[in-house]
Write a structure and sequence with these properties.
Elements (H helix, E strand, L loop, with lengths): L6 H24 L21 H19 L15 E2 L5 E2 L11 H4 L2 E3 L4 H13 L5 H10 L2 E3 L2 H10 L2 H5 L1
Parallel strand pairs: 3-4
Antiparallel strand pairs: 1-2
Length: 171
């Protein structure tokens, strides 16, 4: 993930890899793959444009992998207990709370937890900072939360990312 400079490209790259990964897993399970035959000969499809559903699946895969590596387990005794954190049906750790009874969208009621020190977190912060047209730390934080993410230690992470923004430094 460190290779990709922005959030959209990272999601698109993972979305392009997911069908190949699923096809390879099915081939290994059925033992149809042989080392000498090319993948094109074994039914792997050519690259198509990425759909919105594939991008959301890629986002889920990315979030799960970041959370497995960087976040502690979600249990009542963990450091995330004050956030009422829980793991949803997709396997993503999310923030709980009293908003569960509101009529807001699911991602707004229960934002996905992200660690402060992660390349994916930096990509999301930069993406939201650019979407808000470099308007500052508070508006970027609001955009991140509205996008369905909860960064642990968000204020420091956002301030660090904005201090590295070339456009904001020049203004």
């Amino acid at each position: 993930m460190e290779y990709y400079p922005d959030w959209y490209r990272a999601r698109k790259a993972v979305a392009l890899c997911l069908p190949y990964l699923q096809k390879l897993k099915s081939m290994v399970e059925t033992k149809r793959i042989t080392p000498t035959v090319k993948l094109e000969d074994q039914g792997v499809k050519q690259i198509k444009p990425v759909t919105v559903q594939e991008l959301s699946e890629a986002e889920t895969v990315i979030l799960k992998s970041v959370q497995q590596v960087k976040l502690p387990d979600v249990s009542p005794s963990s450091s995330l207990s004050k956030l009422n954190a829980f793991v949803d049906s997709d396997g993503i750790a999310r923030v709980g709370g009293r908003l569960k009874l509101s009529s807001l969208p699911y991602s707004s009621k229960h934002p996905a937890l992200l660690p402060k020190a992660s390349h994916v977190t930096d990509l999301i912060i930069r993406h939201c900072h650019q979407r808000t047209q470099h308007q500052g730390r508070g508006i970027t934080a609001n955009e991140i939360q509205a996008s369905g993410y909860w960064i642990i230690g968000a204020s420091a992470a956002i301030a660090s990312a904005i201090s590295k923004c070339v456009k904001c430094r020049k203004l």
